[in-house]
Amino acid sequence: MGARLRSVLVLDAAAAFEPECQSTRRRSHRTPAADAQHEPRHAPNLTLIVTFYRHPDHWKIRKTRQHHAMDSNLTGPSSPRTQAWTDSFQDYNLTVMQDVELSKFPRALLTFSSVITILILIVGVLGNSLTIWALLRCPRVRNVAAVFIISLCVADLLFCVLVLPFSASRFLHGTWVHGMTMCVLFPFMRYGNIGVSLLSIAMITINRYVMIAHHNMYARVYRKHWIACMIAFCWIFSYGMQMPTLLGVWGSFGYDNKLGTCSILEDAQGRSSKAALFIIAFVVPCLVIILCYTRIFLVVHESEQRMRQHASTSRAPGGNEKENKRKRNEWRITKMVLAIFLSFLVCYLPITIVKIADKHANWPGLHVLGYLLLYLSACINPLIYVIMNKQYRQAYKTVLRCQRGRLLSFTHGPDTSQQGGERKNTSCTALQTFPLTEMARAELQPNPDVAGVNSPESDGWQC
């Protein structure tokens, strides 16, 4: 009879129902509109499976009480009449389709996952918002790398606001209930924000590499207009790569029965952009980050050897104290960025491996754990900042205590000054005032072509 195309309708009966005995032969000679009008409805939530055949004049409707989701793959070409019926039912079918993969998961596991997702959402929104506000209010931590960290925090914040609520709803309801339009936008926003996050981490790593391995080039490379171009590239490239898929030119966004979520599907020609996006937007940035850190470790190791040799032959190390302090600060922030990258890998790789190794969800718990780890990447970075960087902790305290984020004093810790016979304590956010000569003012004036308050020589994330 040719290839068949199936579409599922779920109808809720609201009135009295006619007897079930109807002749299939009589229904087969009625038109689609007449049959849909006279077709009896027997019980609430009765599933009508409309089966179309290749020949436009041969069609029939058969009823079943099964509530299985239908296979969305087309096994052959369809007529214009068939395509019109399919398009008209597509949006409605998606909102009521039983989630194939989530139906395999225990109800308790899905409820637990929805609660964890909501907690991650709350922590991610608060943590990333606090980080953005702290970096904007505390000028002494506002340098070149901080600009990329703000971009990273914005991407994570958008991920929490635009993606996690729908993920929590999917776990809670056991199915996708937000319609076709959101099913297209959901993976578009999810993959876009993940791409921006990874590219921002790559940009921070390159910044650390230039700072440590090619310090003389730093001021020429990281000027304000170039930094703006780098930030714009992260966002435009991440979302621009998905435009062919969004337009249906190279794959399409939609509901994937195998994965039980809205994702990238193959188009009519069997093409999908998923593999290309994974290689270009994930593998390539990871390789760049790994190469940069390999070079950074080599440079730091050679520098430490030279410092030890110099210390053994020199009795007056005080002249290099400022340079050594700068390098220690650079190394601390470099290790923090490495921790961010490793946490991203730990959060992202499990769901990728599980989807490849267990395509039919034979191990539901692994799939749920993989999704939760992926969501965790949106809220873990602020925790890394607090744990690994003293200056960030001080910036957070400044914001939480509602202190003014003025230009910080150039001495660490609390400073005391005598004023009016009283001893006045000034925190790290207080502006230390004392007369400066013209030469001193010229020394302290930052380079206007370099982003941030600190010059490259003092790029130490000091608060």
From TrEMBL:
The text of the family note is: Belongs to the G-protein coupled receptor 1 family.
Please state every residue range assigned to the domain named G-protein coupled receptors family 1 profile: 127-385
Q: Where in the cell is it found?
A: Cell membrane
* SUPFAM superfamilies on file: Family A G protein-coupled receptor-like (SSF81321)
Q: Annotated region Disordered: where?
A: 20-39
- Origin, by domain of life? Eukaryota
**What is the protein name for this chain?**
G-protein coupled receptors family 1 profile domain-containing protein
Q: What parts of the sequence cross the membrane?
A: 109-136, 143-168, 188-206, 226-250, 275-298, 336-356, 368-388
Gene Ontology cellular-component terms listed: plasma membrane
Q: Which UniProt keywords apply?
A: Cell membrane, G-protein coupled receptor, Membrane, Receptor, Transducer, Transmembrane, Transmembrane helix
Q: How does it sit in the membrane?
A: Multi-pass membrane protein
* Single GO term (MF): G protein-coupled receptor activity
Please give the Pfam families that the UniProt record associates with this protein.
Answer: 7tm_1 (PF00001)
> Which InterPro entries does the UniProt record give?
GPCR_Rhodpsn, GPCR_Rhodpsn_7TM
